[in-house]
Amino acid sequence: MRSVEKEGKTTEEAIEKALEELGAKREEARIEILDRAERKVFGLWSSKGVKVRATLMERDACMEEAKSLLLRILEQMGIQAQVLASRGSDHIYLEVKSAEVGLLIGRRGKTLDALQYLLNRILNREGAEAGRVVIEAEGYRARRQDEIRSFALRSATKAKSTGQEVVLAPLTPYERRIVHLCLQQEAGVRTFSEGEGYLKKIHVVPIDAA
Questions:
Q1: Residue 192 is inside which H or E element, if any?
Q2: 152 and 108: one domain?
Q3: Tell me, what's the pLDDT at 37?
Q4: Contact by Cβ (8 Å): 125, 170
């Protein structure tokens, strides 16, 4: 398997450089953080840069690794399940079939969201928050996606009619991506995320008020 090593000011910058040289998407490479260089400036330690190694994986190998890891996590949770893996245009989809699907999804999908976030973090070795693996269970993601799109469009309509920005409740990286993509083509508004960590708010701003 082909590998490249790159440095950047941040982890994301280093990963982007490595993926560009490989000509690969995020889900097609294994990322390793090799070094976090530091230097002392005016008596204080500051980051000098990050070095990463990106290893190109076979398409089927990427998918099987994600599937295998999810099955191991579910086993640790005490959940017996079958996992079906497939590919979308830019995601790996893992569909979970289990008699304990309610436990897997959790209240308002929180358990499923946490599981998806954990899986992506492990696979990407401190990778992008948006994630490249989507876990589905009994059609929950599809239903939730429709709900989010509908809510995003209603928020855009409200922002345009009132001339004031609308702030959405904190959403997961996956949910924020749905909102941003949904409203990207919506005339008269723009969106941006605010906050730190896993959950962030989205601002829907009428362009005339921007």
A1: strand 189-194
A2: no
A3: 55
A4: no
Q: Are both 73 and 124 inside the same structural domain?
A: yes
Number of H helices, E strands in the chain: 6, 9
Do 134 and 147 have their domain in common?
A: no
Per residue in 125-155, pLDDT tens? 644 444 578 999 999 989 999 999 999 999 9
**Do 178 and 131 share a structural domain?**
no
**DSSP secondary structure letters along 20-77:** HHHT--GGGEEEEEEEEEEEEETTEEEEEEEEEEEEE--HHHHHHHHHHHHHHHHHHT
pLDDT (tens digit per residue) in 20-44 = 888 877 777 888 888 765 444 444 4
Residues 152 and 181 in one domain: yes
Tell me the three state secondary structure of residue 154.
helix
For Cα atoms 20, 172, 7, give the angle at the middle one, nearest 5 degrees. Answer: 25
Residues 181 and 132 both lie in one domain: no
Q: How many angstroms separate the CA atoms of 127 and 129, rounded? A: 6
Cα–Cα dist 92/6, whole Å:
25
Residue 162: exposed, middle, or buried by beta-carbon count in 10 A (0-12, 13-18, 19+)?
exposed
- Same structural domain for residues 76 and 116? yes
Q: In terms of residue numbers, what domain contains 186? A: 143-209
CATH number at residue 156: 3.30.1370.50
Q: Cα(76)–Cα(73) distance, rounded to whole angstroms? A: 5
Cα–Cα distance measured from residue 17 to residue 166, given in angstroms and rounded to the nearest whole number: 36
What average pLDDT does the segment 155-179 reach?
Answer: 93
Domain count, the chain: 3
